[in-house]
Amino acid sequence: MTTSPRQAAAPLWRRVLPHLLAVLFFLVLAAVYFSPILFDGKTLAQHDIVQFNGGAHEAAQLREATGEEALWTNSMFSGMPTYLISTRFPGDLSQYLHKLFTIGLPAVVANLFLALVCGYALCVALGLSPLVSVVGAVALGFTSYNLIILAAGHNTKSLALAYAPLVLAGLLVAFRRNKWLGAALFALGLTMNVRSNHLQITYYLLLLVLVFGVVELVFAVREKRLPDFFTRTALLGVAALLAVGVSFGRLYTTLEYSKYSIRGKSELKTPAPAAPGQVQDPVEEGSGLNREYAFSYSYGIGETATLLVPNFYGGASQMKLSDNSETAKALTAAGVPPAQLSDYLAQMPTYWGDQPITSGPVYVGAVVFLLFVLGLLVADRRTRIWLLTGTLLSIVLAWGKNFDTFNYLVFDYFPGYNKFRAVSMALVIAQLAMPVLAVLALARVLRGRPGQPGEPATAVSTHPSLAALTGRPADTVDTAYLKKQLLRALAATAGLCALAFLAGLVADFAAPIDAQLQQQGFPLDALRADRASMLRSDVFRSLLFVALAAGVLWFFLQRKLSAGMAAALVGLLTLVDLWGVDKRYLNDGNFQQETVAEQFVASPADQQILQDKDLSYRVLNLQNPFNEAQTSYFHKSIGGYHGAKLRRYQDLIERQMSPQLQRIYSESRPDAAPVLNMLNTRYLITPASEKQPQQAVRNPGALGNAWYVARVQPVQNPDEEIKAVGTLDPATTAVVDVAKFPLPQTEYGTEGSTIALTKYSPNALTYRTTAAQAGLVVFSEIYYADGWQAFIDGKEAPHLRADYVLRALQVPAGSHTIEFKFEPAQYALGNTVSLVSSVLLVVALLAGLYYAYRHRPEPHTISDTLLA
């Protein structure tokens, strides 16, 4: 699988043509998989994308109307920065590279296409032939998790994973071939990966890079080549800085925001009251998430078997069962009408693993698993140590609380790790490492016995000394060696399938949800029998693909197949295997004719509220208020849907707002929640019921956009502050932490004082006020120090925080114009750094292309060193 001098001297078009055909093949694959989007005009029903469109609507409206970026929005949680919602950085020129790479494809189609192309680029960078590189791209691109997260709407996560192979390609080229070309490729890959804005995926990717670096360092010490190691490392460090610089605006604003979000340090010392059956967001001490919240999604130790047997734990939380299933028979016997049976079977709780909910397993493929095991036997020591260590680390990290001895130490002491939740996501390391070693193993086998069926063998071998000892041709020795290792890999993989089958014989297939089902009289024995059947079926399915792939390689080593035919057949088996499992979780049932506009149709309650043309007021949807952004599309919402809301606002929700909402329910009074009144909650949307439809109820207690208070209740710390809010009359009194915001007085005259909002924009608010005497004004706006500035008659004036989350301002007597402007210095600085770094990146890429053109590839490839 090497490039000969003759091939290197071939005309450019002949060298480029196989790569163009490969890219065209990937385009066809992505188009076929997502044909409902491209050919039927449908969209993918993605829950998180729907929520994103709701939360980002206000920012999108401002951008469309004025071209201005809304750096703040009032559409979610009473107000928050848009840094992690919808902020664009004009200085980041990598957006044009992304448009070039995705060739105008719709988002989800582009994500799959990119995953295939970048996987192919990695394999080509390894020096593999175009055909073997296609096999590797399919293995990397169609891993089940890639399609499952698209079905859920995790587009940024998918995009970050799609670009990850480019980072590994640059890493390997830099260390195993040419440091300058590798550094340029590394900078490009990491730039696009970081730009995707899913830092948890980038974090796991860099863990794999770190493992590579440690392994390389150990071998560099042994081989006495430390200067070369540090030179290449330093060059990659510069490339990484360049990549970070391109996304500096996004990273810098995110870093600043994280200090105030639930990922930052809590100011409260007393623990939050635990809601029954719920895991709280904030931590009690330190910085980052708490353990319970971060490890709530931990992969079960036994669940690791899904890498080889996808339905080992029942697939997704809800799966469709057939009409011939045991559950179908039991429901029919219980009297369920045939017309309703399909609806019952469409969403059965088949999953019985440790996670509270899952959209599907991480399945790398039975063929890939076999080749991965083979790679552990035939790849060079450095490569297999790196990829095996990365895989094992991935698995252990994904176990989370199920292996707490190790994972709690990592969580507490490894830099930045406590900022992330859903540790099961760590398996993305394995889904990168395992296919890479698998495709290297495939290349090793195909390289081991050159020639066509029936042709005489060429004496090429990686074991010349063994050939000399045996007196046999090198090709014969290498073929015998590869046959032996193939049989070992087959035995090991088949043995794991057998263990999975035996585990199914002793498992009880019980899930936490079963207790609830039992109370409802559901036929649990039938459901558990179906769970067992799903496991057994997939064990035999995996065994079949393992046997077929091993058979192809065996026939190749027996000179019954050519190298090209063997590679094509293994690639086909890999595609059929992964495609079949992917379609369980993202299939035609996931597509809809509905457009984004049709997903947000104003209800009668929304229409009623929209008749109110005041500049600004807030709305609370009482149905699941803090996990939906439908309301945010039409109104300035008290609630919303976001994984990193402001910590102080989360404190307010848990300690004051939720208890007060219970009072609204019990007393049937919309004005029974003072916290809602101070947030200017003018309307409450009540849930629909059998007796009445959804309604918009006006809250007579809403205090408006701003008001003068008569007194200040001083407190000395955040705990006193949040407690005082619970007994506060916000219309007359403001709670102020005077340890942070000292005030000259605590009593104010308010008679005859008025204030009104005269102009509204997400980034700027203008008020007109008239007062006979100086006073303290409280604004129903969220306090956020990094960016908001207050001005009185054009002159900057210091403002303070009141009522735990709101802004307040001391205003002199007389008539004045008050302005609040959101102009964060981080955005301006970040955008400038991004622009400079983008220009430098373009220069580096052009230099890399020129270098690649002037310095033709050597007649050896990286795979020579990886497969020796």
From TrEMBL:
InterPro entries: Uncharacterised_YfhO
Entry keyword Transmembrane: yes
Signal peptide range: none
Stored Pfam families: YfhO
Keywords of this entry: Membrane, Transmembrane, Transmembrane helix
Ranges annotated as spanning the membrane: 20-39, 100-122, 128-152, 159-175, 201-221, 233-252, 360-378, 385-402, 422-443, 486-507, 539-557, 564-581, 833-853
Superkingdom of source: Bacteria
Protein name: YfhO family protein
Organism: Hymenobacter rubripertinctus
